[in-house]
Amino acid sequence: MLPAFNAAYEEIDQFLGRLDAADGDKLCYHPGALVPISGFVDLRLMELYVHGWDMRSRLEPPAHLPPESWPVLLDLLPHFLGYMVVPASQEEGRRYRFALTEGVVDARDLVVEGGILRLEAAGQMRAQVTLTCDTETFLLLLWGRLALETAVAAGQISIEGDHTLAADFSRWYKGF
Question: By the 8 A CB rule, do 57 and 65 touch?
Answer without folding.
Answer: no
